[in-house]
């Protein structure tokens, strides 16, 4: 019996495991998913919850998410030995595999920015909204906020869903306008890059929107530390940015079990990402290892939409390998980011390795699709391994 181990029960892991279970007969393969958490969150809700656009209850237990015939092991991965084909777990015996799928995602580390954790835990002004708890807490903070500087910053590290800080910034500006306090609020976002969004033509459209709405973008800002007592963000170049309500994006890294406990990241930038072929999602050294999503080094935007496309490629190619057939499926770098510009309007940015796909147009339909339709599709179709448009 072929043994398949999937590390991580997030978007990429859950969908890949369920797709494999649909493709492979029960007598062909055993599929085991390992994760240290039993809760799977709908992470796109984190920038919507603070404004009341989605209800807070946006999670499912992993056991309820995985199809019958997929075993779930609730344990933390501490290392991988791809030569011995074993996964070391924190509390239980080593897991042996014939094929491995790594979907461990990003590790959020608020301690990587001096002062961030203290500012979040000890004040009422700082909410790193990539954390579910902070997104919940930010609702009350927004209700009580009346004037001052609303600041969003991004770390120097790559981040999952690079559009999320822009969406939060635009939704906040619109929220303050609807609340009638926009004239009393400065809205500022920073990034350690020349532009706030990397892909054209969406970048120019966003600049147009931000200029019309007087949203300030500070370029090439590297956050060095936060002084919660003074309400100041210190940049690496000596710049100081004051804030009254602050939504920092937490620095993000690869999972230590993979970056330090395995050779799978050797050769990647800073050793943070599993090195794969960007089309097949197969590891560049170990043929029986695949990786997808935020944990690997393919040059695509780290979004659930990208992981969804990769899950189909991995499940098809892995099934072909098990059945001694050629791997024919290829990932083209597709990523999608619904850029919510204000309540009731959104622009869909779609692109692949080569070029943009959709037009930079704001519409009500894009908002409806993202806020009202997509969560149900995510839970009831994609994460269960059903996808009419793979």
From TrEMBL:
Record GO terms (molecular function): FAD binding; sulfide:quinone oxidoreductase activity
Gene3D superfamilies for this protein: FAD/NAD(P)-binding domain (3.50.50.60)
SUPFAM superfamilies, per the entry: FAD/NAD(P)-binding domain
UniProt cross-references to InterPro entries, sorted A to Z: FAD/NAD-bd_sf, FAD/NAD-binding_dom, Sulphide_quinone_reductase
Protein name: NAD(FAD)-dependent dehydrogenase
Domain (FAD/NAD(P)-binding): residue spans on this chain: 3-311
GO BP annotations listed: sulfide oxidation, using sulfide:quinone oxidoreductase
Segments passing through the bilayer: none
Organism taxonomic ancestry: Archaea, Methanobacteriati, Methanobacteriota, Stenosarchaea group, Halobacteria
């Amino acid at each position: 019996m072929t043994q398949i181990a999937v590390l991580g029960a997030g978007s990429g892991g859950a969908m890949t495991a369920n797709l494999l279970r649909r493709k492979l007969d029960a007598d062909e393969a055993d599929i085991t998913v390992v994760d240290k958490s039993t809760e799977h969150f709908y992470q796109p809700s984190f920038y919507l919850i603070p404004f009341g656009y989605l209800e807070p209850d946006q999670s499912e237990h992993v056991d309820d998410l995985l199809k019958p015939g997929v075993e779930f092991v609730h344990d933390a991965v501490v290392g991988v030995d791809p030569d011995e084909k074993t996964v070391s777990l924190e509390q239980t015996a080593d897991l042996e595999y014939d094929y491995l799928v790594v979907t461990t995602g990003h590790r959020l580390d608020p301690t990587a920015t001096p002062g961030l954790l203290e500012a979040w835990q000890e004040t009422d002004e700082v909410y790193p909204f990539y954390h579910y708890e902070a997104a919940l807490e930010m609702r009350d903070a927004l209700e009580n906020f009346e004037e001052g500087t609303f600041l969003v910053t991004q770390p120097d590290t790559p981040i999952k869903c690079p559009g999320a800080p822009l969406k939060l910034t635009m939704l906040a500006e619109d929220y303050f306008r609807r609340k009638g306090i926009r004239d009393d609020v400065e809205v500022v976002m920073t990034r350690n890059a020349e532009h706030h969004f990397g892909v054209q033509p969406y970048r120019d459209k966003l600049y147009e929107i931000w200029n019309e709405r007087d949203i300030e973008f500070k370029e090439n800002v590297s956050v060095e530390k936060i002084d919660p007592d003074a309400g100041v963000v210190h940049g690496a170049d000596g710049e100081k940015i004051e804030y009254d309500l602050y939504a920092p994006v937490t620095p993000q890294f690869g999972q230590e079990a993979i970056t330090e406990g395995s050779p799978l990241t050797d050769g990647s930038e800073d050793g943070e990402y599993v090195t794969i072929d960007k089309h097949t999602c197969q590891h560049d050294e170990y043929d029986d290892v695949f990786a997808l999503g935020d944990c690997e080094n393919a040059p695509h935007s780290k979004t659930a939409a990208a992981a969804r496309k990769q899950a189909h490629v991995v499940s098809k190619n892995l099934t072909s390998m098990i059945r001694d057939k050629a791997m024919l499926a290829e990932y083209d770098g597709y990523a999608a980011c619904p850029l919510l510009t204000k309540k009731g309007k959104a622009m869909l940015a779609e692109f692949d390795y080569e070029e943009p796909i959709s037009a930079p147009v704001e519409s009500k339909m894009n908002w409806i699709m993202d806020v009202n339709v997509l969560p149900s599709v995510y839970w009831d179709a994609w994460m269960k391994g059903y996808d009419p448009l793979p």
